Task: inverse folding
């Protein structure tokens, strides 16, 4: 029997996880952000070595030294953003690295074979075309074709449908079924439960780094799955006191940006928390980027304090009282080599400069100290490069940075992603405090319980459109999930 | 070892090497420790040295400016050509500086607005501005500058210190303060580390880059004028190859070629090392060309060593995060 | 996904090459008006003689540039190779020409290997390494030469006569042997880059280094090889330099690295790596040489305009490349490709929507 079984425990990321894949099956893996799915992929593709436990292929334990090694053994992964060579042709992308046909490239044969493989996937491309010109769906197909040419045995697909239209998803599923029928084990990771139920033979659930359960597709209901994905005590984890919402401070009408989102309308009041729920790729961050001036809106209006504004740069947004805490702290949120202090004061550095233009380091440090105490940032020194801090403390630093701008509207994008439980609780308390102090908060989160617990109202988006706006009382997990994933 | 201490360590290392170089040179030549000798060291290399100071900003910002030597020549030739055409000398100087600033502004705009790498743009500048210099003066040489001008280069201003050296000292201190203690300088570092973070934090990235490249060319222009003062004449082919020494001074000073880190103190120490090295080699009758080879090797080694040092803390960084 | 609209498929590289030919043709026409007796056999001969060195260097540079690196030391390699080969030939007048050429190639390959080692294995950026070796190699040459110059009369006659040897003559147009050989070499290498595995892999490395590593390509070995090849070709250029000029001083070849990069860039080779052809680089060298040789003959324009025009040309070529590239990209794709360079008006790609948890 071909298949992979894994047993390992890596504290924090994966805790004693075992998973078995059988040949000729589509095995779906579901779980929230931070459940450990991406770590598992990294272990399976040889990027990370497990601290404990083994990977077995065909019953034999193997050690995967690196990505190439995993590939050689027939394990391939396809990610949401395809890893392709933009300047090379489609055919070359399919074959490079493994079947370059000896020394001399036989173009015609390569093109024909590429065309054939792609045709089997119901994709009709000119294999001579440079890969850069392709839409994401086709690039993905190229990657699948590559995996096929590799004689893949285990194909991991990480959120493959996030960037696809409904029609392209159908085609992808046909391709996946084809692969399965040829004996490949497909590990299909997705947030979208309706798709999972459509394509999977078995479904496994991860939560907080543990394997919770594995079901046959017909042996489980959607609500059971949701419960398993989400099930945790909701005790003191979420902080929620009475919020007194005052005037409307931010009003958005029919906001849109081509190709990203459209028709978004909502209001946020002072002291109110508006949750923005939806699946990864639904367009919520795009809305935030439009509000913050990084990818300005092309349609619709934004009104701040009753006055219409046209926001075209972050500096302008900040001057208007907006602040945006990005979802990717390592790449756009924090400057990793700069100190904690320096990161905290960065957007408003002029506040700390004297008349001569010199930065008052004492004042800086004082501000940083205040935030360290207030947010509980743990670091050996405020001068430490922020890259050395743990995820939770980095997140708190980023929060401090934006709180320091004294915003009237604070947009938080996945503020508790990838941080430990204690830090998450701290963040929740903080959000509550801020709301009580009168800040208007937009909370973007893929963590459903979090959104439901923390928000006064919940706006749901799906594929760039607004699909629901619920008051706290009427927002339930079912309703929100349904609006987020669409009809079954 | 956090980045902060790494920079201090590098500075310490440089200080040791600097002292070592001076001691070694002094042991081989009795006049070495004379104040005059040191003053001379700077005077002869003042052009490279002030450009190295501004180049620090450019490299910390994550860019590079290969055109500085050509802009130097361009500025000197504008000066010479204007003077030759009868323009009053002070005005000619102003023209030269304005032309250099314009050159830098042009490059900066292209780099900031089109996203084309500064390597390519300033390489085109290196070729193009050298060409502009040649158009102005062809293969002539222009000299006979007013006496007050050429004396500027030679006579002493403050005690034993000539004008050039005073200029350098003031410049390096001001530059150090701007880089390390102003909001602008902080912005330069952050952009060099990660331009996206800078943008998301409200820093005007494009404007900063344009300012840096304009200033870089302006300083190169000043250097060109100083060169004219020192030499007493100008040609189109002056300052050829200067960019090597300049970039070496900056990278040896601990500034990372990838941007985001470095100190002015380190660069100042590295300047000292490079100048003393050349001087010492010269006194040992090593030819200028061989000296250049040594500088080249120094450049490569300094980045190699930085690479090795980078690998150590990185391992620790990943474990903690 | 439907097939692309164009039924006739032309690779984008071909389009660039063809447009270069077009530009050259236009230039020739314009100069035909500005210069009397422009179209002469003599002119053709002069161009074919002078272009070979830059052409070889442009090709050498391209091999490195497609991997997203650069080699600024080629000028110094030319100098060292020309000088040492000249010394050898002068000392051994009866030695076989093959040996002399082999020596030039070997010297170049060795110097290129040093570059390759430092870049590929030492992980020092190419701009730094080759800026340093530019100085190191040149300074070594100066100290080795001790101010002696190689003079043409010390060289065996086969070397000195080489540039004028003709393969075939068509009227007053001579197809020089050297020119012919260089074209053949370029053609072979170009075929290699298009058809051999190592050639395609070089493009892959420049196109997306992370993907290349992920795909299991031996990136370090390939980059090392590219630098060795570049060095060897520069060595060959050194030999051609020797043959053409005969008199080799210690500053021989100085500045040629700039010409090689200019020719490559004008020829459509992207500094970001991954695209551009050897043929394009060759055409770039031809275009620059045509401009060089023609400007000299236009009475209103002095030779001193050369560098300025070259600089402007590079800038124009790069900007055009970027502008055209963007327009094509928009037409071809619905989604922007990842990892495009971010500019002020384009938003930074927000974090990939993977659940990129740190867990």
Result:
């Amino acid at each position: 029997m071909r298949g992979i079984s894994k047993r390992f425990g890596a504290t924090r990321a994966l805790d004693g996880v075992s998973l078995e894949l059988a040949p000729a099956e589509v095995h779906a893996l579901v779980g929230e952000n931070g459940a450990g799915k991406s770590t598992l992929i990294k272990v399976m593709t040889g990027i990370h070595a497990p601290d404990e436990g083994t990977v077995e292929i065909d019953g034999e334990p193997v050690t995967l030294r690196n990505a190439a090694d995993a590939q050689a053994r027939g394990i391939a992964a396809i990610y949401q953003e395809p890893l392709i060579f933009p300047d090379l042709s489609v055919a070359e992308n399919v074959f490079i690295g493994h079947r370059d046909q000896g020394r001399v490239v036989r173009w015609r044969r390569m093109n024909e074979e590429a065309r054939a493989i792609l045709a089997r996937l119901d994709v009709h491309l000119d294999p001579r075309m440079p890969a850069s010109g392709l839409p994401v769906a086709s690039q993905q197909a190229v990657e699948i074709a590559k995996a096929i040419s590799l004689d893949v045995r285990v194909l991991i697909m990480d959120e493959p449908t996030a960037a696809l239209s409904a029609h392209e998803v159908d085609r992808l599923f046909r391709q996946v079924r084809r692969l399965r029928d040829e004996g490949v084990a497909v590990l299909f990771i997705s947030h979208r439960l309706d798709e999972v139920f459509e394509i999977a033979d078995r479904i496994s659930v991860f939560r907080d780094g543990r394997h919770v359960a594995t079901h046959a597709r017909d042996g489980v209901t959607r609500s059971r799955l949701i419960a398993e994905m989400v099930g945790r005590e909701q005790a003191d984890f979420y902080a929620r006191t009475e919020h007194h919402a005052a005037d409307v401070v931010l009003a958005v009408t029919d906001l849109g940006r081509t190709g990203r989102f459209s028709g978004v309308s909502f209001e946020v009041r002072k002291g109110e928390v508006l949750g923005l729920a939806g699946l990864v790729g639904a367009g919520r961050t795009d809305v935030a980027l439009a509000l913050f001036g990084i990818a300005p809106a092309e349609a619709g209006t934004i009104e701040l304090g009753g006055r219409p504004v046209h926001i075209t740069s972050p500096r302008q947004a900040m001057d208007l009282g907006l602040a945006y805490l990005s979802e990717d702290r390592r790449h756009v949120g924090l400057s990793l080599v700069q100190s904690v202090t320096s990161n905290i004061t960065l957007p408003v550095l002029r506040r700390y400069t004297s008349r001569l233009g010199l930065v008052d380091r004492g004042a800086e440090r004082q501000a940083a100290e205040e935030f360290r105490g207030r947010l509980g940032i743990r670091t050996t020194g405020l001068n430490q490069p922020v890259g050395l801090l743990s995820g939770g403390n980095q997140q708190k630093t980023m929060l401090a940075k934006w709180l320091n701008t004294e915003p009237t509207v604070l947009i938080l994008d996945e503020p508790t992603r990838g941080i430990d439980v204690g830090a998450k609780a701290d963040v929740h308390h903080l959000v509550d405090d801020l709301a009580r102090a009168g800040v208007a908060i937009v909370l973007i989160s893929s963590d459903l319980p979090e959104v439901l617990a923390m928000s006064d109202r919940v706006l749901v988006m799906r594929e760039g459109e607004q699909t629901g706006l619920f008051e706290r009382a009427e927002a339930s997990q079912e309703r929100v999930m349904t609006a987020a994933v669409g009809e079954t | 070892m956090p980045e902060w201490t790494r920079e201090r360590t590098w500075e310490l290392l440089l200080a040791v090497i600097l002292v070592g170089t001076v001691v070694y040179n002094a042991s081989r030549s009795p006049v070495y420790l004379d104040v005059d000798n040191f003053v001379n060291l700077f005077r002869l290399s003042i052009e490279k040295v002030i450009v190295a100071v501004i180049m620090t900003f450019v490299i910390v910002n994550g860019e590079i400016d290969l055109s500085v030597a050509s802009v130097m020549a361009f500025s000197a030739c504008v000066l010479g050509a204007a003077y030759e055409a009868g323009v009053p000398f002070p005005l000619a100087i102003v023209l030269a500086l304005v032309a250099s600033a314009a050159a830098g502004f042009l490059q900066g705009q292209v780099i900031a607005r089109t996203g084309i790498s500064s390597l390519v743009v300033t390489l085109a500048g290196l070729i193009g501005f050298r060409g502009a210099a040649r158009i102005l003066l062809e293969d002539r040489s222009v000299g006979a500058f007013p006496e007050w001008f050429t004396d500027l280069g030679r006579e002493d201003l403050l005690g034993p210190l000539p004008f050039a050296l005073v200029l350098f000292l003031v410049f390096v201190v001001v530059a150090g303060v701007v880089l390390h203690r102003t909001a602008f300088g902080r912005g330069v570092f952050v952009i060099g580390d990660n331009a996206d973070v800078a943008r998301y934090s409200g820093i005007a990235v494009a404007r900063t880059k344009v300012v840096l490249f304009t200033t870089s060319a302006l300083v190169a222009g000043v250097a060109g004028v100083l060169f004219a003062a020192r030499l007493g004449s100008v040609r189109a082919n002056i300052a050829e190859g200067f960019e090597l020494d300049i970039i070496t001074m900056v990278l040896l000073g601990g500034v990372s070629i990838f941007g985001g880190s470095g100190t002015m103190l380190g660069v100042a120490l590295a300047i000292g090392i490079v100048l003393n090295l050349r001087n010492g080699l010269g006194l040992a009758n090593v030819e200028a060309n061989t000296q250049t080879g040594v500088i080249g090797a120094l450049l490569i080694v300094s980045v190699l060593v930085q690479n090795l040092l980078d690998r150590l803390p990185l391992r620790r960084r990943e474990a903690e995060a | 996904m439907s097939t692309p609209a164009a039924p006739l498929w032309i690779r984008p590289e071909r389009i660039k090459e063809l447009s270069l030919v077009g530009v050259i043709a236009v230039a020739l026409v314009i100069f035909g008006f500005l210069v009397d007796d422009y179209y002469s056999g003599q002119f053709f001969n002069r161009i074919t003689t002078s272009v070979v060195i830059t052409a070889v260097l442009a090709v050498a540079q391209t091999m490195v540039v497609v991997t997203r690196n650069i080699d600024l030391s080629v000028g110094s390699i030319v100098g060292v190779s020309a000088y040492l080969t000249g010394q050898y030939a002068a000392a051994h007048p009866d030695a076989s020409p093959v040996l002399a050429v082999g020596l030039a190639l070997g010297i170049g390959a060795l110097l290129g290997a040093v570059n390759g080692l430092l870049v590929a294995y030492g992980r020092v950026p190419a701009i730094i390494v080759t800026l340093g070796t530019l100085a190191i190699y040149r300074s070594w040459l100066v100290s080795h030469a001790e101010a002696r110059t190689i003079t043409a009369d010390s060289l065996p006659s086969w070397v000195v006569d080489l540039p004028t040897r003709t393969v075939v003559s068509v009227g007053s147009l001579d197809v020089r042997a050297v020119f012919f050989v260089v074209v053949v070499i370029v053609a072979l290498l170009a075929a290699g880059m298009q058809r051999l595995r190592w050639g395609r892999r070089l493009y892959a490395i420049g196109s997306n280094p992370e993907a290349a590593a992920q795909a299991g390509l031996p990136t370090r070995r390939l980059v090392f090889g590219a630098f060795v090849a570049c060095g060897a070709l520069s060595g060959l250029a050194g030999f051609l330099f020797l043959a053409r000029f005969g008199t080799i001083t210690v500053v021989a070849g100085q500045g040629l690295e700039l010409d090689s990069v200019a020719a490559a860039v004008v020829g459509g080779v992207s500094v970001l790596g991954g695209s551009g052809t050897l043929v394009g680089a060759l055409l770039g060298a031809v275009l620059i040489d045509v401009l060089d040789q023609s400007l000299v003959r236009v009475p209103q324009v002095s030779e001193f305009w050369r560098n300025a025009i070259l600089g402007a040309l590079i800038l124009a070529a790069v900007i055009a490349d970027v502008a055209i590239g963007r327009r094509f990209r928009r037409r071809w794709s619905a989604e922007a490709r990842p990892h495009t360079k971010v500019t002020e008006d384009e938003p930074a790609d927000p974090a990939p929507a993977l659940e990129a948890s740190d867990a």
Summary: Chain B touches chain C through 55 residues (CB under 8 Å).
